[in-house]
Amino acid sequence: MVFPLDSITDFSVVLTPEHEMFRKAVREFVEREIAPRAMEIEERDRPPLDIIKKIAEQGFYGIGVPEQYGGQGGDHRMAAIMSEEFCRVLPGLSVYFGTNELFMTPILLFGTEEQRRKYIPPIARGEKLGAFAVTEPCCGSDVAGIQTKAEKRGDKWVINGRKAFISSSDVADYFVVLARTYPPPDKRARYLGLTFFIVEKGTPGFRVEQCYHKMGLHGDNACELVFDNVEVPDENRVGEEGMGFIYAMETFDRTRIGVAAQAVGMAQGAFERAFQYVHQRQAFGVPVAYFQAIQFSLMDMAAKLFSARLLTYLAAKLADDGRREFTFVASLAKFYATEVAEEIISEAINLHGGVGVIVETGIERFLRDVKITQIYEGANNIQRLTAYRQLIRLLREKGQIPEEVAKLVT
C-alpha cells in the first residue's frame, strides 16, 4: 500500500497558516508589480532590473536561506509556493530564484564557513545574483563529460573552457564553475576528477559572450561563458577536489523541486485563464462552458493540476524533513509536473480557440515557457532514469533488494 515509502504518513503534505500568509504576500506583490508589466517584459526579453531590485527589497531572494547567512529562513515548501506564484504570471522571473539557489546550494552543503559568510549574505539580500556554470556545448545531461579544465599552479587554479546555456549569467555577480582538475581513473569512474570553483564577475580572462534568443522564459537570459586563463585562489575551490560531480547531483536533487513548482505555477495560470474564458465566451446563445465537452476538459485539467501540485509539495515536505526519499520524489515531480503542465496549457489554448494563439492574449507564452522546464536541470527522460536509480539505491540501503540485483539493474 505504501511501497516504496515506509508509512502512509509519509504521504502527508503539511502546509501551515504561515505558508498561506506567505503565499498571499507573494501573490499581492506579483499582481501589483509584475502583472501590469508582464507583456512588456515578455516582448523586450531583457532582465527587468528595476523589478529584480523590488524582488530583493521584499526579501524573496532570502527564502530558504538560513538567517545566520542573511536569509529569511523558511523551507522548501515556501520556496515552491513562491516559484508557483511568480510562474502563474511571468515564469521567466522565477529563474532568478533558481539560479541563486543553484549557486548557493553547493556552497551551503560543501563549502567552507568563510565562503558561506562571504558569498551567501549578498545573494540572500538581493545585492548580488548568482549563476551555476556547468553545461557546455558538448555536454548537457552528460555532466561527467565536460571539457572545461582547471590546472593547479602554486596556490591558484587556472581555468580554461566554455560554458553554454547559463541562465542569468549576463547579470550574475558570482558563479560556481565546474571544471575537470584531473583525468578520471577509468570509464566507470568518469564522474571523478571534477571540481567546483567560485568565480567572480570581472575576473581577468572571464567573460560573458553571446546570449541566446530562446523560445520562452523571457526576462531572463541564457548566455555563453568563456574562461581564458582565469585565475582563482585555492580558497575559491568548493569542497574536495574531484568531488564536483557528486556535489552537482546533490544540488540538482534539491533544485528540481523548484522546477516542478515552476511548471505547476504555469499550469495554474493557464487553467485560471481558460476557466474564466469559457464562462464568458458565448456560442449558440450560451457560454461555451455549458457544453459537456468543455466541462470534461476543465476537470481533466484540474485533476492533473492537483496531482502535480501535491507531488511537488510532497517532494518539498520530504526534503524539509531530511528524508532520503525526497530525491526520488523530486525527480518524479520534475518530469511529471512539467509534462502535465504542457498538457494543461495546450488544452487551455484549445479552449480559447483562435484567441489562444494570439500573442497579445498572453496564454500561448506559457506553452513556450513550460517546454524549457522539461529540458533544463535534467531532461525528463534522464529524470526517469535518475528516479529509478535513486529508488533502487534507497531500496538497497533498506535491505529490500539484494546488492547483486541492484548492481545489475543500475
From TrEMBL:
InterPro entries: Acyl-CoA_Oxase/DH_mid-dom (IPR006091), Acyl-CoA_Oxase/DH_mid-dom_sf (IPR046373), AcylCo_DH-like_C (IPR036250), AcylCo_DH/oxidase_C (IPR009075), AcylCoA_DH/ox_N (IPR013786), AcylCoA_DH/ox_N_sf (IPR037069), AcylCoA_DH/oxidase_NM_dom_sf (IPR009100). It comes from the Archaea. Keywords: FAD, Flavoprotein, Oxidoreductase. It is an enzyme of class 1 (oxidoreductase). Residues 131-230 form the Acyl-CoA oxidase/dehydrogenase middle domain. One of its GO terms (molecular function) is flavin adenine dinucleotide binding. Its cofactor is FAD. Gene3D superfamilies: Acyl-CoA dehydrogenase/oxidase, N-terminal domain, Butyryl-CoA Dehydrogenase, subunit A, domain 2, Butyryl-CoA Dehydrogenase, subunit A, domain 3. Residues 242-391 form the Acyl-CoA dehydrogenase/oxidase C-terminal domain. Belongs to the acyl-CoA dehydrogenase family. This is Acyl-CoA dehydrogenase. The lineage of its organism: Archaea, Thermoproteota, Thermoprotei, Thermoproteales, Thermoproteaceae. The gene is acd.
